[in-house]
Amino acid sequence: MYTELDLMKYEFFYNLLEKEKIEYILDPLTKLVSKGRFLPFIDSLIKDDVPFTLGVIDLDNFKFIVDNYGHYVGDEIIAKIADDLAAFVGDNGLVGRFGGDEFIFIYFDVIKYAEVHDMLSEMYRMAFRKNIKTSGLSIFVTATTGTASYPIDANTTKSLFDLADKTLFRGKMKGRNCYIIYVEEKHKDIKIQPLSAGDIFKVIFGIREKFASKAHSIIDKIADVSEFIKYTMNIPVLLYVDTQGQIYNGDDESIVGKLTERIDLDKYGIYEINSHEDLHSNQDLFDSLVNLNIESLILAEINSNGKYKGYIIFADRKKKFWTPDEKTALFFTAELIANEDK
Prior knowledge:
single chain; 342 residues; alpha+beta; Alpha-Beta Plaits; Beta-Lactamase; six-stranded mixed beta sheet; six-stranded antiparallel beta sheet; elongated
């Protein structure tokens, strides 16, 4: 990764390397610049009035990957993404590891919104929203990024990071797997409120309360709960499949497609698609959802005392790594529908 030659073209690191070995400057795993050296480097850029955009990147649901595949696989993914990010930024800036599954980068001279948008779009094409092959596995990885630019957004390292953190938080609230560019009118009033461990309980409680509405039919009850799920969990599309295979839009109860075959579920009773490429593996499902521009989904069977009663589907129009909380909410909704039919 970064060598002394790569870093010595910057006056800050040139002076630093006269006193320190490069091993003390780089992160041991990724060989990117460590957080402790990256922040003073940003200070030096601001002191020299060098325009740049700062980005803070957080890998989506990385704990889930480590819990399921182990720390070794997690480290391999971190190292692979580090390589891709450094290759993308190249001589246009520098990349650092902020800690854990977070990265930071600076990109010189690109500070206007349209330019930053184009840069981030290309970065996501190269580094994220793809399967990373490691240890015989193929793991779909996405990330959320927040950015702010010097000097148009802030003029100190701390204030610049505060704005990037706000946009990163906004990206997480929108459902992750996206990048947000700081715009004062949109983002200045955002207050960062970390999610608590009890949030999934609140979601499930809310689903149960919504499902206890006075609506008479299953599809009416699903319509009642659809808006709540979309708002609280940032899930754009909720679909219901009845026993005849008719696919209903959870919002307006319209029929949007038809399934002709049953779906093979995993051992937990879930069927998961992360990208359009995977959706092609089930042609029946693909044909049914192509007009909705669905990119990813999770599906659970509605089963009442061993009797098949259809499916409930959470879906997104972009590639997505589905979280345990989202799967829990889906499974709970399927159980509510099944119990309603007893």
